[in-house]
Amino acid sequence: MLPTVAIVGRPNVGKSTLFNRLVGKKLALVDDQPGVTRDRREGQAHLLGLDFTIIDTAGYEDEDPQSLPGRMRLQTQAAVENCDVALFLVDARAGVTPLDEEIARWLREGDAPVVLVANKAEGKASEGGVMEAFGLGLGEPIPFSAEHGQGLADLFQALLPHLEREDEEGADAEDDSEADIESAPLKLAIVGRPNAGKSTLINRLLGENRLLTGPEAGITRDSIAVDWSWTSREGVERPVRLIDTAGMRKRAKVQDKLEKLAVSDGLNAVNFAEVVVLLLDATRGLEAQDLRIADKVLEEGRALVIALNKWDTVENGSALYQGIKQALSDGLAQVRGVPIMTVSAATGKGLDDLIHVAFETRTAWSQRISTGILNRWFERALEANPPPAPGGKRIKLRYITQNKTRPPTFVLFGTRLDELPESYRRYLVNGIRKELGFGAVPVRLTLRSAKNPFGK
Questions:
Q1: CA distances, 406 to each of 90, 183, 275, 384, 442 (Å)
Q2: Measuring CA to CA, which residue among 185, 179, 151 is closest to residue 14?
Q3: 338 to 187, 278, 440: CA distances (angstroms)
Q4: Is 456 labeled as ligand-binding?
Q5: Where is the EngA-type G domain (predicted)?
Q6: Is 349 a known ligand-binding residue?
């Protein structure tokens, strides 16, 4: 069950407009005349990573309980009694009215936490109303504009302490969807230069000559998907969709039209995959083209695993492994610690470990961190290493939220973010990977500054 937030206030202060803003759809009717909303309307709201049920209520009026406005008021009271937090809207342009004061007294007597929102606060004409709202005894009002979407960041910060516990419980509820992901077939693409042994590896996994192989380079043209079942170490059968792709040579060497189409098809297979295994021919070491392929995989946001094939034929393997590991660390600086596995497609050595690591990598690639846990880590990261102050003016980082998975994508909110050094951004991304369990999967971090309506 998601936490619930009830919007209350006198008629025509913008409750339904705020409701529509938070659910992202025009579900509630909105009009200039008061009293349009009569029943409680519920919707699923999403505010910068916070998920909750939002309840739009009728305008609170002091009427006889048997009258229609009185019965509407009873519906509003029931919504507040059962909510986790109440959003009390006042009209900043009109200022505080006697009915606002009566609603504030009623809310103060109740048990529900209250967040005071001064709506219609765009423009200087609203400043007096915002100041008047302090007198309602419900804490600092949030200047807001439901119509224009101004003040969402402040509303997030005000709701977070009240919904944080429920948000983490919501993250537990989300485990159901994560469980669905775990039981779904792992989409695993095998990519690499020609003749690295991609088709041979898949045939070994399948236990049959399903794909055409041979000493000639470039046999595979189409990306071939084969469904297979892998038995884990615990004896659990897990479905896998193996995707064989054409060898990817350096672009300048690709002249044949069919080869161009095959490489293009292989790149499309990368987009379709969840985890991509870059298969290297260990006897040839690491080449520049391997780094280009790896970079393309990470650019597409796929989880990457490196596999060194033909390891059974390698001499002085320890020195070769360390050399390739260092070269990958230097060449893929944006994602350090990519898993490197040693395998032999010819003998099957190391293939079971490869699939095991691929499943683990998908789990990290698919996980979502609750907003509460994420922002507690964020506060620790800022304390350990505060952002710089170019020109003596501090860059203010306000909060962070995860808005996507697969790949994990985060949005950082603050002011003067255009001056945040790339080194500090890398510090945050590396902290997310290391401390929140994302490992070496690609993590995306976008910066977003609040718009200042008076900036011009």
A1: 40, 16, 10, 29, 9
A2: 151
A3: 18, 11, 5
A4: no
A5: 3-167, 186-366
A6: no
Q: What is the pTM of this model?
A: 0.71
- Judge whether 347 is annotated as a binding position: no
393 is in an annotated binding site: no
Residue 227: both structure tokens together: 């469904």
Which domains does the chain possess?
Answer: 4-173 (3.40.50.300), 179-366 (3.40.50.300), 371-449 (3.30.300.20)
Residues with Cβ within 8 Å of 455's Cβ and at least 6 positions away in sequence, in order, are none
Residue 441 corresponds to which amino acid?
Answer: V
**251 compared with 71, residue with greater pLDDT:** 71
The reported pLDDT for the residue numbered 280 is 96
Task: For residue 198, give the amino acid letter.
Answer: K
What distance lies between CA 240 and its chain's CA centroid? 25
Instruction: Give yes or no for a contact between 98 and 62, defined as CB atoms under 8 angstroms apart.
Output: no
Task: Tell me if 95 is assigned to a ligand binding site.
Answer: no
Is 386 a known ligand-binding residue?
no
Q: Which pLDDT does position 176 carry in this prediction?
A: 45
Q: Say if residue 15 carries a ligand binding annotation.
A: yes
Name the nearest CA neighbour of 369 among 448, 326, 286, 432: 432
Is 13 known as a binding-site position? yes
Strand 275-281 to 237-244 pairing: unpaired
Please tell me whether 247 is known to bind a ligand: yes
Q: 151-180, pLDDT tens digit by residue?
A: 998 999 899 888 865 444 444 444 445 567
pLDDT 10s digits, 18-29 = 999 999 877 655
Query: Are 188 and 204 within 8 A, CB to CB?
Result: no
Query: Is 12 annotated for ligand binding?
Result: yes
